[in-house]
Amino acid sequence: MTPNSYRLPLIEITSIPAGSNQSETYRHLLGLALKAKAKPEAVDISTLPSTMIRLSPAAKAQLDAVAEQYGMEPRAAFAGLCAAGLAIMRKQLRQQAGLNKQAAADIRVPFEPKSDNQRRFYEQIMLGLLADKIVFAEGSTGIGKSRAMAAAALEMARAKKTPVILAAPTVAVMEHLYEELQLLNAAGVTYSILPGASEFVDDIALREYITATQTTPELDIDQTVIEWVARGAPALRPDAPLAHALGENAAWLMDDLRKLATNMPVDDFALRRPKRRDDNPDGESRKLLESLRNRAKTETDIILCTHAMLAIGQQTQWKAVPEPCVVIIDEAHQFEQAVASVNSDQVSVYSLRASLARLRRSEGLGKGTIASKALEEASKLTKHLQRFDIDGKTHCLTDASPEDQEDLRLTTTCLRSLGDKLASKSLNELRNIEHYRSALKSIITSLETPSGKGINRVDLAFSPDRRYPSLYCGPARVDMQLRNIWNTAKGGVVLASATIYIMDASGNSKCDYLRGLLSVDFSRISTPAPVIEKYLYTLPCLYVPSPRRRDALMPPRKQGQNTEDDWHKELALSIEHITSTAHGGTLALFTAYKDIQAVAKELDLLGVSKGRIVAQQPNRKFSEYERLFRTIHANGERPIMLALGTAWTGIDLKDHAASDETDTLLTDLVIARLPIGLNKSNSMTSRIERMGMHPIINECLLTFKQGIGRLIRRENVQHRRLWVLDGRLFTEGKWPGMEALAGGIRRLLKEYRHRKEF
Question: Is 17 helix (H, G, I), strand (E, B) or coil?
Fold first, then answer.
């Protein structure tokens, strides 16, 4: 039992702030009543539910004093004071609603809103920003959130609340926000993109590679790349956002290299962050990057960046990014994971071995070389770490039991031996070498810190199928980093997304999980009602498996090749039927590459044309798959994408050349398996240890809501179908421990007006 926790009765509450969690709400009501010295109301607690609520010693002493004053049992006094506090809070909310209504009437929308919903979304975030609040702003797909956020950033800049940081999860979304700024009246306001180093080509490395190809014929090179470099690598699209931000000197952009290269290892030529000591400081691409960063620090009112860059800004005490006055974050549900990632290191031992083996082959290195010795040490480390893979779970190595100390000592020895080999200058050209060096150093330091005294934890996890080990080193919580960002942004924060609120099995929508995840102070929170377009639930038809199909479409709970094979075949049969009857393209969302590969193989056996299938694989940028999907559609075929990761949250498959009514780029969306366990950050692992299944369920609900949002991106589209194939959702009693998850998703699916079984 948590210290200072008491089992207390819960009065029924309606119309409460959506950002609060249960315990915090009741503590807030108690505090309101105690502060007002209110008399506890008479409440029959015999039929009320109860739960454990933590009270501070001061609050408990005040509660006991009130109970004694009115001759009541403390539990009854608690319920009575909460009832009195609820009356006070409702009065405050009515007053605030009146003030907000008047304030909203005074807000001028600086663009022509396309709908009342877009106007309302803009007014809500402006109300919060004008009061320096942290606004949890949910707006569904299609209302025009990006235009509203860009306009709010301009208004804050004009109010001299600068700099304004406008952050997005990916470069593509960031560039979309930049385009929105270009379309608005930005007179008197300066804005620029603050990109990461990896958005630029390392011009020195690429030129050296081109030179090497002249004497080493086996190195792959594209003639189009050679010609592009000879011209100074100019921007292929000068009007593209990053190129526009750079101006007439725009060059050496990674997106351009990806479009030109078909045979080369493109990502090997991304500019490193941070700069290596022996990097040439006069590289053209690094100069372009530095010019953008200097401009952002000195001349810019609005800075557009990724979630990761904002996290790096906080990590560097606002040296990499200017200290913000206002922060506006798009897709805010992904932000904590970005902060955790920036503050963490990961080492995939398999990827390291593959890089070393590739270097040996390309350079023709023999057995006695450092590369060969490092590869041998990496192989030894793999075998040693696989000894921990007994129960299939993630292991926290920094919390090892006394009987595991010898294994831990051997792990550190293996890591040190590998680190010594990787420190050799002869491996300076190894892909991601600086990352491996710094990550191993952090992991070793954390493992050698006495248990309970380190700020970082080291987790050991294994890939689902081949059980390749990966080490994760980072903070167990990033509360401090997040609070620092919110406290720095004294002019207000907007946390915007289509998935802020989570619906439970009873239909209640709350954002308490995300509020806790992002460490937002309850006293500063603003939680306006979600702005939802009704057509999201009236346009599509929802298909769920009939009772006789549900068992066959239940993913196997245990590893077993035959069971998995059967499930893959059933999935493929369903997807083959869906794609054969679809009016346009189909997106099927998965959670593991091995499932994608298996289903793609089964679809081939069922006679589905390979030319229609886009099956995502690891280690390739997702934009390549989206480009291929669009190309197949442009050629008159109905494409089929089997995807995961970004496909759940960051893809917008609209045909911009078509009208709403004729857009068939994506007509069918398939949920092959619920998105459980996709967040593997150290902070997520720590939350699971502290809170059990609660964070897993809530992360899944958020991601599921994001996933189904891929289907309807325009108001008047036709022939849209949503297929939820995971049989566990609809089979009562066969998913122990996940009843809350299944209930929440089933309740969400009830919003769809048209439903059928298949």
Answer: coil
* Measured distance CA(260)–CA(221) in Å, rounded: 10
pLDDT digits (tens, 9 = 90+) for 708-732: 999 998 888 999 999 999 988 887 7
* 39 DSSP assignment: P
**Pairing of β 493-497 and β 326-329:** parallel
Spatial contact of 499 and 333, defined as CB atoms under 8 Å apart: yes
Q: What pTM was computed for the model?
A: 0.77
Residue 460 identity (one-letter amino acid): L
* pLDDT band (50, 70, 90) for residue 26: confident
Beta strands in 584-712 (DSSP E): 586-589, 613-615, 640-643, 668-671
pLDDT at 454 over 80: no
Give 689's contacts (C-beta < 8 A, 6+ positions apart).
Answer: 396
CA distance 612 to 628: 10
**Residue 261 CA to its chain's centroid (Å):** 29
Whether omega before 540 lies within 30 degrees of 0, making that bond cis, reads no
Tokens of residue 395, six digits? 């292991």
747 near 739, Cβ under 8 Å?
A: no
The CA distance from 39 to 69, in Å, is 10
Residue 402: cis peptide before it, omega within 30 degrees of 0:
no
Token pair 């000197």 in the structure block, residue: 249
Most confident of 13-27, 32-46, 678-692: 32-46
Query: Within 10 Å of residue 354's Cβ, how many Cβ atoms?
Result: 15
- Higher-confidence residue of 388 and 183: namely 183
Lowest mean pLDDT among 73-87, 95-109, 176-190: 95-109
Tokens matching residue 118: 């877009």
Are 616 and 596 within 8 A, CB to CB? yes
What phi and psi, each to the nearest 5 degrees, are found at residue 497?
-175, 165
Give the SS3 label for residue 306.
strand
How many whole angstroms separate alpha carbon 25 and alpha carbon 15? 12
Total length of the chain: 758
Q: Say how far apart CA 728 and CA 739 lie, in whole Å.
A: 10
1: confidence class by pLDDT, cuts 50, 70, 90: very low
